[in-house]
Design goal:
Layout (H helix, E strand, L loop, with lengths): L6 E10 L6 H19 L3 E9 L3 H10 L3 H18 L6 E4 L3 H16 L3 E11 L4 E3 L17 E10 L5 H10 L4 E2 L1 H10 L7 E2 L1 E3 L8 E2 L2 E6 L1 H6 L1 H4 L4 H7 L6 E5 L3 H15 L7 E4 L2 E3 L2 E2 L10 H8 L1 H11 L6 E3 L1 H31 L11 H22 L3 H22 L1 H4 L3 H25 L4 H10 L6 H4 L28 H13 L21 H5 L3 E11 L7 E6 L4 E6 L7 H4 L3 E5 L5 E3 L2 E3 L2 E2 L1 E4 L2 E4 L11 E2 L1
Parallel strand pairs: 1-2, 1-12, 2-3, 7-13, 12-13, 14-16
Antiparallel strand pairs: 4-5, 4-6, 6-8, 9-11, 10-11, 14-15, 17-18, 17-20, 17-26, 18-19, 20-23, 21-22, 24-25
The protein binds ligand ME8.
Amino acid sequence: MHKNGQKFFVTTPIYYVNDVPHIGHAYTTIAADVVARYKKLDGYEVYFLTGTDEHGQKVHQAAKDLGVTAQEHVDKLNTRFKELWVRFNICNDDFIRTTEERHKVIVLNILKELFDKGEIYKASYEGWYCTPDERFWTEKDLVNGNCPECGRKVEKITESNYFFKMGQYQEWLIEHIKSNENFIQPASRKNEVLGFLSKPLEDLCISRPTSRMSWGIPLPFDDDYVTYVWFDALINYISTFGTLDKIRACGFWPADHHLVGKDILTTHAVYWSTMLKAMGLPLPKNIFAHGWWTVNGQKMSKSLFNVVEPNSLIDQFGVDTIRYFLLREVPFGLDGDFSHKALIGRRNSDLANNLGNLLNRTTNMIQKYFAGTIPEAATAGEEDTALTSKAAQTVSNVRAFYDDLAYNKILSEIWELVDATNQYIVKTAPWNLAKTEEGKERLKSVMYNSAESLRTIAILIYPFMPESAESMNRQLGIDVPIEEQGMQSVAKWGGLKSGGEIQSVSQLFPRIEDKEAEKILADIQTSGDSKKPQAASAKSDEVEQITIEDFMKVDLRTGKILEAEKVKKSKKLIKLKVDIGNETRQVLAGIAEAYEPDQLIGRTIILVANLKPAKLMGIESQGMILAGSADGKIILGGFDQELPEGVRVR
Ligand code: ME8
């Protein structure tokens, strides 16, 4: 394939390793994959980076609650992302983890260099700290006394810490943003950043005392501290290449696009830009902050259990339908709402009816009229010229829309060509041409042009739907994969070779029939469109049915709580002594955020009495008590009248 000698570097955020991967994460990663694949097709040498963010308080806490080491925890969890990206056909060149040695070494070097240059200093600090977000805020940042980012409670903390002299770069950064029009996109988000910068920019606290949080990269100049998780994480964009010298030499720097969600624009536009300035490295050409997905109008969150589980969606609809839907449905940059109904609608109208039909009718007619051999174009009528110029226009518009990552416009352009080709077939009416000798000559051109248009479409949709595009290409009897044909093969009409043999393959996008669609929507309705997050290996989101015998295997018993105390160093766990009639059990329950130990004593609960004992934080738990949760609030299961201990519940 023709190489243009240019390099292209695109990144996604590195996702928090203990998040359950959902369509929000998939969205950014697919968007990066599409532009990476397009640039490759266009002859660029591409470097596409993604990964996982593995330090910080949340990981530390989650590992503690599970009674495993933080390293064991992250080693296990990062694979959920890796495996999902394989399923989604993501062509990343590197997957970086912030706990890897190669990353830690670079973070240490950079910290040391900045410290030696006087960019980092130690000072006593008083601020408002949001533990879940791991961020300090000043008094003026707070909204109604709460964290301006997540709205949760903040605590006042006074401690000595290390600071990066971020504030000194405020004027320079404002100037940089204003004079580089595409540095932050979309424009509305750029204005938000400028709004943020209209208030005085403070220096950035880049350390956390190990006494409070030890899961991080120790500061090279003070063992009592670890590096603030954001300062550590942003450096992943450098550590993938190695040292600063390697960065300067690799030719990929600076990034062409850092793709991020709007939630983390400030950390990229302000923290990252000023960090780079201090290091003397060029800033990214573009930071694109896309919008936020909700699901049927609700926020996606683990605690709400309404995460749209991507593995299940892939099982149900196929990879390419989801890749297409996410980028077609909502303009990149705006917020969107995910609904299965809209997904099925797009699949049936755009993919099955418009594109699928065009491919089927064209290949079927070539089979029927030319025994499957692609004929040679002979004549060129008015309709043919209209179609070829539409195709040329489509290619040029698609190219231009990539500059602004206007994915939905790109797809809508391509579908205009799909429609134009379908209309071309209707207008030229091949079934009538086939009736006469003269018509048969014309039919050759009509069939050739329809197939050539499909070849063009296949190349244009390839970045979005790589599997389907390659399959279309094979069906058209082309044995050179699209990856090798490149964008230059659609620079002019006529790249399809006559004489190629049409291959019949199974239907690309079978229609989801009304009955099946109704069933899918009804299933979602009954589960409140709320699916519990599943492990990446889960193959189906259907609720498995069990028999009464299966259910009876679970020994549920009433139990009276005799004692309750909080587990030291755990935010969530309470240790209970529970009387279940003929014996007393020690049980650990993750309810400390919802109940005080005193409230629990004397309560009758339901215990899973035949659960294998397990150790949490080194303490044995001999059973599990039942509870429900809504909006993150945990409520214990119980009875509306008194029952003695040890009664079987069924
Ligand atoms: O912020 N809609 O990681 P994270 C759209 N580790 N995109 C969404 C989304 C939603 N509902 N939910 C998540 C972090 N995303 C840091 C990043 S980078 C150096 C460190 C996507 O796991 C979106 O890209 O919270 C968002 O910015 C990112 O996931 C946040 O991922």
